[in-house]
Design brief:
This protein is α/β, with parallel strands linked by helices and 219 residues long. It has 2 domains: 35 residues, no CATH class; 179 residues, Rossmann fold (3-Layer(aba) Sandwich), CATH 3.40.50. The chain has 8 helices and 7 strands; from the N terminus they run ααββααβααβαββαβ. It has a 5-stranded mixed β-sheet, with helices on both faces. Helix 3 packs across helix 4 and helix 4 crosses helix 6. Bound molecules: zinc ion.
Length: 219
């Protein structure tokens, strides 16, 4: 019956939205698969992300990947988050050996931004990752206790100051001795990921692994 579903709802490429041939069961069309610059390795644990034990990014933040991320964040396309969640999970299966004992946590969004976007893209990715990997998703493990400016509007130092102390963990015991995976769309300076990891570590997390669809830090 899957061929019938493909006829009614043709599968579209996750990055460029073109209709893929029904025989292709991947998420990307051939063009995007060849065009996207794959990173697929841990970015260096430099100053900004010293609390993150490992940080993986799948692609460089440029077209066609960036278009899909922008659609997810600004054009009401939560379906992109599901596709990204699948990509991240497939990557984790191969590259993160301890994923089976891990839990997934989402990056909390400020109330104002959540209202504008109507969903939290990190929550969608986290839920999908937990589904594909068959591990627990601890929703709202971390909450945001104050609004922050959009990190993309700030420089490296300001980003760090902007995010400082904005997260809170209501039930730290749930994180004790856990390996925690945090999915997100883009990592730039890593200050959000780092601040979140610091809180998770304070709560007793054993290891924190960041995994993002793209990185704007050229490796
Ligand atoms: Zn494509």
């Amino acid at each position: 019956m899957s061929w019938l579903l493909d006829l009614i709802y043709p599968r579209r490429c996750l990055f460029c939205d073109c209709v893929q041939p029904v025989s292709d069961h991947g998420l990307l069309c051939d063009l995007c698969r060849n065009q996207a610059v794959y990173v697929g390795k841990a970015i260096d644990n430099k100053v900004n992300i010293r609390y993150v034990d490992e940080c993986y990014s799948l692609f460089v933040y440029e077209k066609p990947v960036s278009d899909a991320i922008l659609a997810l964040k600004f054009s009401n396309r939560p379906d992109k988050g599901v596709g990204f969640g699948t990509l991240l999970a497939e990557y984790a299966k191969i590259n993160i050996p301890e994923y089976k004992e891990a839990i997934v946590v989402d990056v909390p969004l400020g109330k104002k931004r959540k209202k504008e976007r109507r969903y939290n893209q990190s929550t969608i990715m986290a839920r999908q990752m937990s589904k594909v990997l068959q591990i627990d998703f601890l929703k709202d493990a971390v909450i945001r206790i104050r609004e922050t400016k959009a990190q993309s509007t700030l420089g490296s130092k300001e980003r760090m100051m902007n995010i400082k102390g904005c997260f809170y963990i209501p039930d730290p015991f749930k994180l004790e001795e856990k390996v925690v995976i945090i999915p997100d769309d883009v990592v730039t300076t890593g200050s959000t990921m780092n601040e979140l990891s610091q809180e998770l570590k304070k709560a007793g997390a054993k290891k924190v692994i960041g995994i993002t669809v793209a990185t704007s830090v050229v490796p």
